[in-house]
Amino acid sequence: MKLRNGSLWHDRKRTFLGLPWSFTKYELTEERLFITKGFFNITVNEVRLYRIKDVKLTKSFGQRLFGLGTISVCSSDDNMKNFDILNIKLPEETIELLSDKVELQRNAHRVVAREIIGDHDQDDYDDTDED
Description:
It is a single chain. By secondary structure, this protein is an alpha+beta fold. About 20% of the residues lie in helices and about 35% in strands. The chain has two helices and seven strands, in the order βββββαββα. The chain has a four-stranded antiparallel sheet with strand order 1-2-3-4, with no helix packed on it. A three-stranded antiparallel sheet has the order 5-6-7. The longest helix has 18 residues, at about 90-110. It is globular and about 40 Å long.
């Protein structure tokens, strides 16, 4: 796998017994996450790190046996809304690295996550006095 300049992490989707026998490759740089799929026809998707909203790590029993895990990513990217980084080695270290780099890029691009806390009903803000 030819790595980009400044590559911080790379891995392949792993299959049977945790072996990297797949044509899906993952690569993380300071600003982007790349997912390359295919052998004859190759598709490269990328997401800018500041567009990532949330990450989640899951490890099934089989994945735990072989030291693997899957990172689920939710992003605001038009092309790659929700996607998984499947069956990778060292998933805890990888999600920590990814989270740190996402936070740095969000700060650098001044992206603010605005989360709605609670469900507010419009009737709660009725400022007419009807006594």
